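Entry 12.
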Amino acid sequence: MNTWPGLEIIRRLESYTTYGKPSAPLIVGRIAGVEAIFLARHGEGHKIPPHGINYRANLKALADAGVTQVIAIAAVGAMAPWFAPGEIAVPIDLVDYTHGRAHSYSDGEPGSKLEHVEMTHPYTPALRSALFIAAGHAEVTVSGQGVMAVTQGPRLETPAEIQRLLRDGCDMVGMTGMPEAALAAELGLGYACIAVSVNWAAGLSPAGLGIHDEIHASIEAGMSKVQRLLAAALPGLAG
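Predicted 3D structure (tokens):
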């Protein structure tokens, strides 16, 4: 995080919620003159696997800190031909293939209430629109929108599984989008995602680089675009 151009780290916030500790301390920083809070969902040093993340604590910690809008950054495998490695997208919908994750605050525990949260828009339309507008101002190319498949991880998918996801109408595959999106909705938080294509999904990669080489070659280009997009978006989202 401290390698982001123009990012000033102000302070670290240790937090504890009724759902446990979040993955890492909340980092209060300033970009383009705007304060924002950052949370490493996989923990400091990227050690927590997707299925082991305490998503409920993460989202609750952000809400408790006064966050009202969440922009999730996700490294994904690309399935749609328009989403080459190194490109970014702002997904419009998702399909959840995860299992066994604590996926709701409506868990039947004392003090919780049953809430059937609506997911017609898993990604908040106004927040997505703000990202597209900011991308235009920053001259950052967003390859498209698309549908995110969210799988269990941490293993990658088989070629047959990728063909199934394609038949289901998905364009990219990640491992952290759910239950993040649903929990954000339960808490009334705006939620959008910037997806970074880091490799072609299994069975779709052209001959050449191995998958880990492909990821390494793509992530730097993609994250540079994310940083520029966030710097342009945050001033319009503040307040």
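Annotation: Helices lie at 55-64, 125-138, 159-167, 177-186, 211-237. Strands lie at 8-13, 26-31, 34-38, 69-78, 88-89, 93-96, 147-150, 172-174, 190-200.
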